[in-house]
Design brief:
Length: 203
Amino acid sequence: MSTPLAIVVVVLAGYVLGSIPIADLVARRQGVVDLREVGDRNPGYWNAMTQLGRDAALPVFLGDVAKGAAAAGVGLALAADDQWWLGYLGGGAAMVGHSFPAFARFRGGRSVLAFVGAASVLAPAAAVCGWAVLGAIWLWSRRFDWAARGGVTTFPIWQLLIEGPYRTAATGALMTFVGARFGMAAIRSRTSDPATPDAGSPH
């Protein structure tokens, strides 16, 4: 497959996978009409867990991680030896799809779990270290939000040590997108409703 065609296939596949509104589907099955109207108004795992409970929201967690992982896997499957960046392109496309889903009026989440799934496929050794940090903090604090932040924020450090700067820079680009989504959510919550819960939860 030529490089331009591979790029088109990876971007389209990643975006379509990311656009699958798993949180919406699970919430509706549980009787919540729209996660955008309850809680912190984010259609993602954290809001689903708050509204539905941890067990009911587990498919959201697994599904959103799987979207990023599958999209990154498509990119790696189509990549030649020197085209590792196709995996990042696929993961990034899934994150864009999750944030701006074609199947949910382009109103999506913040792509944290899609990033986690992509990162776990793209840099598995660093991901194992990140998951270990998450587990250690969770066991110590019993706070999943702290644990998630610790795992995600230390991931690029592990990747830099294991894989060097180039792929870590690509990871930085994906994480910048997540940061931008959190910033957008914070601005929107403050301008639309000052009483809306803080947008800083890991979703």
